[in-house]
Amino acid sequence: MAYILFEDPARTDLFPFTFTRPVADLRAGIFTQEERWTAMLGVPVHVLAPGYLHARYSHLPETHEATWINARMIPDAEGITLVQDLRPDTFYTSPAGELLAARFALERMPTDGILSADVLSGWGLRQEVVHLQPLFFRQVTDFFSLNAALIARDFPLAVQAAPNQPIRDPHTRVYGADNLYLAPGATLRAAIINAEDGPVYIGPHADIGEGAILKRSHAICAHAAVSMGAKLRGDTTIGPYAKAGGEIGNSVIMGYSNKAHDGYLGNSVLGYWCNLGADTNTSNLKNTYAPVKLWHYGSGRFRDTGLQFCGLIMGDHSKSGINTMFNTGTVTGVSANVFGAGYSRPFIPSFAWGGVQNMSTYRLSDALDTARIVMSRRQVALTEADAAIMQAVFELSAAERTWDKG
To answer: Quick check: helix, strand or coil at residue 181?
Structure first.
């Protein structure tokens, strides 16, 4: 059976990350959703990306029929059994009405790449309500809120890739060694790792610098680098080829992004190709200790997260200048360039340029030039499909840049 990760209308609740990539390519814990489903099913899964993301990210099987899985659903043993036992021309929903999975022929694939229970009912498929409450990515804060649980789930799968390597550096101190996995090619120098309260995964060719301290659960993914003297509090993911320095707690850096210098990042999520300038700091707690409100793209307003701790949500390709201060619960869109004195605005639109007092539009041509330079430094090319996605986001976000309207 072929398996395909699809998206439903609630994908917009995961903006700004789903502006530029499908849910299947978003990372929390050790894996992306595509990697996680592949590891748990034991066979490669395919992806149907919606709309303007289709050309860049969709890869579909050459088969007549497939099982379609909601990409926001996080797999567990029950979920795996559920999708494996799905009958033809049937779809499953949870008691809350969320579409979980379906099985039907590829010829019915929706042209916009979006599936919903209403669409499937309209096709005449049978609906079955299953009493299963899987974890879902329902809002952007879930990436850090669920991160400890996801690292713990992913750890047994991730460590099967290769034998655990011994720590040969005599100056590295480890507590809870049974919870530490060191992949081939990874290096540590004079680090302190306390894995007593959660697993620590250090991926292939990752580098942990001298004097770095890691406590509780962590995922330091392939080719990631932790700077000298970094202080990583628990439940943090540093994605592939990302850099982490200063103080970081309960945050996710999805991949290829840099937070290499001093400064605090807490209860935050950075997408891909972001860069935080030296001494950038995020507030993750209000002085009033009140719940944090966060910008919600779908409703065009701030919504209560119900969380006391929430820092920075930053979309792909966004940057901050040195000494930038991000306010509690700040949402930054795609390819924004933030700098200047004072606390940032709580919502910074995509392709914004500037700071608290003055903002202008980051010209698309300039943003693309920067992206090409940044990506080439990691031997990655900005493709025509990538550029088309950036242009689509630039156009979609035009209404957010109110300064352009005079």
So the answer is: strand
φ and ψ at 375, to 5 degrees? -70, -35
Burial of 190 (0-12, 13-18, 19+ CB in 10 A): middle
Identify which of 75, 80, 97, 65 has the alpha carbon closest to the alpha carbon of residue 24. 75
Structural contact between residues 28 and 21, judged by C-beta atoms closer than 8 angstroms = no
Peptide bond into 50 cis (omega under 30): no
Residue whose tokens read 């974890």: 135
CB 83 within 8 A of CB 18: no
| Amino acid, single-letter form, for residue 142 | D
Partner residues linked to 220 by β-bridges: 202, 238
Measured distance CA(163)–CA(152) in Å, rounded = 18
Tens of pLDDT, residue by residue over 329-367, are: 999 999 999 998 889 899 999 999 998 778 999 999 999
Q: What is the DSSP letter of 250?
A: S
Statement: the pTM of the whole predicted model exceeds 0.90 = yes
Distance CA 179, CA 200 (A): 6
Using DSSP, state whether 393 is helix, strand or coil: helix
